[in-house]
Amino acid sequence: MRFADTHCHLDFSQFDQTRDELLASCKASAIDLIVVPATVCSGWDKIIKLCQNNRQLWPALGLHPYFVAEHEEAHLEELDKYLARNTASVVAVGELGLDAFVDDMACQQYFFESQLFLASKHKLPIIVHSRKTHALLVKYLKKHCLFGGVVHAFSGSKQELEQFVALGLKIGVGGVITWPNSTKTRKAIQYAPLESLVLETDSPDMPVVGEAKGQSTPLNVLRVFESLCALRQETPEELSVALWNNSLALYACNKA
Prior knowledge:
The structure is a single chain. The protein has a single domain, classed as TIM Barrel (Alpha-Beta Barrel). The protein contains nine helices and eight strands. It has helices spanning about 20-30, 45-50, 75-85, 105-120, 135-140, 160-165, 185-190, 220-230, 235-250; strands spanning about 5, 30-35, 55-60, 90-100, 125-130, 150, 170-175, 195-200.
């Protein structure tokens, strides 16, 4: 079995003292692919350098809606240049999206749609953040030519999942399915098309059951996989092969 964590903020300072040891542990646990999405412009160089030094890590560059107050028009121009310069290594645009818990939705929408345009221009998939904005996201996504992508840390209903899948997007399956009371999301994932699913941890933020927020690591992808096995009818071997292939297909990348 080989595993992919398709969303892990391994560039965050929380990992600075433990990153090398953690990556070695991941490698020993057959976690052979970790996608590191950006949040702000100032973090892009660190992510690119991290990924250049470790083939296990794949970079994505974008402007996260949670930090919309930090984003500037010039950052979009910089993103365009970064994507052009790093065509062979950057595997997606992200993390981009909308967040109903953050002020200035109009500004969020501007940066979201601008990044959708850049993803289309550079023929890259997108890594989408959505908190209580699924319907609005679908509205914007339908307006753009998409080259695939993933709805990160999906938490929602079967109907919402089906809307994203119909747009050609994968579904990021994370720590939320390890919590027994997440009945709506667990049911949606249980009956989702297998070819639409990929694993993620959103480390360090998204906890698995019994863990405090901020303590997650990419090793938790194994805990998420265990919970997925309990929900689905496929064998663990069938699931692992499909999830690995889905991850490679998502990023259409030959790095692995």
